[in-house]
């Protein structure tokens, strides 16, 4: 998205998709700030197929919350969320050969019924917000808006129909041969590209103005170019940056997937080792983990039994030699190991000096024995 101060107003060229990287709220915020600073109008040249509902709502709120006068001209196509961001304008105009399209918000999700129900709930809420905004501008009721425009279909309107509906205020006569509505309905993407090709941009709206180049370079943090660089060089710098960003995102996504798969494999190996599941069951569990996440896979796995408490070698417990007969009294096994338990505490307590010796020589063992006996840490 491009914008600059020209002809005593801030002009925005919003041609593309609504998302954080193209027609974005961050750019609109900066454009609005410039218009507020210069105390002038904000003019928006709109040609968009729509895009992110979230980003579009941010733009709508940014435009609604400013007191500067806002003017919108639809010079090509305004479809889906693009029809929402035009609504806060004080004046909405449309070329006589342009089109708008309204429909319900859509989403593509993968998951279980809970995910689907939550997505449906969000989409219903989004549709309600859109219906309210269209109703406020057109003068129709929310029920009429839902029936006419948010009815599960793509509802295309030419300039005359859009004006009759109350969504625009004025039709601009271009003198160009109009694109037929039948052609739009037959292949909307091709028509969108056709509009893109035929929309002439006047010389002042190019990147040749030094101040705009400087702002663009600073906002995108472009490397290897300055305000003295040509438009082509700046565009190539943007493409390079996007390519590098895409590569970084792809690398991070691949690493995240690899880490996720390793975590799944490690967890399943733990269950196989503990004999909680069989080796030939891991493939099925792994597919669940990859599709729904490791937490849901874990919820389907059997509960692991806690491992038996490891015996502690007697020599590690008491460095001093025990009194005669002590070994038998504390049930030392043939390999010299002694379990930590309340019974062990009782056995040592029967022999004079044994507990004192453990407390003096191995206080950490004494603490373990005490806790096994009484359930709390001793106060040493």
Automatic annotation (TrEMBL):
A single GO molecular function term of this UniProt record: peptidase activity
Matching Pfam families: CLP_protease
One BP term from GO: proteolysis
Domain of life per record: Bacteria
Coiled-coil blocks: 235-270
InterPro entries for this protein: ClpP (IPR001907), ClpP/crotonase-like_dom_sf (IPR029045), ClpP/TepA (IPR023562)
Keyword terms, alphabetized: Coiled coil, Cytoplasm, Hydrolase, Protease, Serine protease
Record flagged with keyword Cytoplasm: yes
The UniProt record lists the keyword Coiled coil: yes
Similarity comment: family membership: Belongs to the peptidase S14 family.
Name of the protein this chain belongs to: ATP-dependent Clp protease proteolytic subunit
Lineage: Bacteria, Pseudomonadati, Bacteroidota, Flavobacteriia, Flavobacteriales
